[in-house]
């Protein structure tokens, strides 16, 4: 029995539908195209950039958090904590841009015997914690009168007082002046300043350029001594001549007080008797 002609499949390999035959312009299987490589490179660069930005932001957030912990202060705080010694390792020294220095005087004028009092305020206005010496040995308070340097807090300085200050911290302190002169190495027996107008200013000896505005005050002169009033004297009798300066007035009963002349023998004349003339014998 023969197979009808035209219905028998052709001999040889039959090509798979949807897949081009070898040599028909297709690429070899498993090898990415250049476009795919470019897309992969772009995606890798974007991911790398995102990772770098995330790391940078994380570091900045950690630094800001640490700074906030140092800067935070309890609510209702009226005065800063007492000064204490700090380890300066890991912190930078304060610069003039980190601090401000204020100075006020308690009164405009002081009577004799009153001592002027000054208020110093050191304030941190920077962005990072730093350390500074806040003692009068470093914050020099100088009192002058014209060109005359009267007194300075560094002439006889106390011990240093190093503070670690965070942003927003303020450290006030009071300095009293005993109305005396001073000089380097604290010499004694210096002349005392007198009454007049004086000026005071405070400046840091460690932070260059850190200084306050000057304040002016007056030392008043002591009051004049009271005027002594001479004792009151009795008025002279009518017709009587007051004694000359330095003369002793006659005692009561003395003939000189009544204008009578005493007899030569020292006896007093009788009442109504006329004393004899000079040289006459009674």
Textual characterization of the structure:
15% of the residues lie in helices and 21% in strands. The protein is of the alpha+beta class and 282 residues long. The strands form 3 sheets. A 5-stranded mixed β-sheet has the order 3-11-10-6-7, with no helix packed on it. Strands 1-5-8 form a 3-stranded mixed β-sheet, with no helix packed on it. The longest helix is centred in the first third of the chain and has 38 residues, at 34-71. The chain starts with 33 loop residues before the first helix and ends in a 24-residue tail after the last helix. Mean pLDDT is 76; it is low at 18-27 and 71-78.
Main sheet: which strands, in order across? 3-11-10-6-7
> Helix coverage percent of residues?
10-25%
The SSE order reads HEEEEEEEEEEEH
Shape summary: rod-shaped
Total beta strands: 11
This entry's quaternary arrangement is: single chain
How widely separated are the two ends?
229 Å
User: What amount of the residues lies in strands?
Assistant: 15-25%
Main β-sheet: number of strands, strand sense, barrel status?
5 strands, mixed
Radius of gyration: 55 Å
Judged by helices, strands and strand pairing, the structural class is alpha+beta
Mean pLDDT: 76
Task: Detail the poorly predicted runs.
Answer: 18-27, 71-78
> How large is the count of helical segments?
2
Give the helices and strands, then pairings.
Blueprint lengths: L33 H38 L20 E2 L5 E7 L3 E2 L6 E8 L5 E4 L5 E7 L2 E5 L9 E4 L4 E7 L19 E9 L10 E5 L35 H4 L24
Parallel strand pairs: 1-5, 3-11
Antiparallel strand pairs: 2-4, 4-9, 5-8, 6-7, 6-10, 10-11
